[in-house]
Amino acid sequence: MADLVFRPVRKEDAAALAANLRPSDEAEIVAAAGAAPVITIARSLALSTYATAVDRDGELMALYGVAPLSLLGDVGTPWLLATPQLARHARPLTRTARQYVVDALRFYPVLQNYVDVRNTASIRFLSRLGFTLFDPEPYGAAGLPFRKFEMRRV
Fold this sequence. Notes:
Blueprint: E1 5-7, H1 13-18, H2 23-33, H3 37-47, E2 50-56, E3 59-68, E4 75-82, H4 90-107, E5 110-116, H5 120-129, E6 132-139, E7 144-152
Parallel strand pairs: 4-5
Antiparallel strand pairs: 1-2, 2-3, 3-4, 5-7, 6-7
């Protein structure tokens, strides 16, 4: 059994992840963006300052990255989308994700995004990484309850 491998994103990764996306991530994408997951994933990759793919035994497990909130601001928007199989590898992902957050804070003094309240696995993950989670508020194309999450460079 191989460990998680972190590698550069490939052109075909958006479609591969969209075909095997966690149901909670798919529901979140549809509620927030109102678009098909493959379109939203490809857009996230195109807008990101940097992005990384996570493989195990040659199988794509997740994509993550950070994109600027606006062209003029200093706020980064971190994101992570995964397959259901990634849940079995939460511990090594969390260790690596902590370093990713430190690196992202070097580029952006504030990291901020929204998470669907139904996406409990992502909320637990964000809490473990040390993000502040705010009270739910209507957000996105569907106006469903989402929680803003944020971390600031100290």
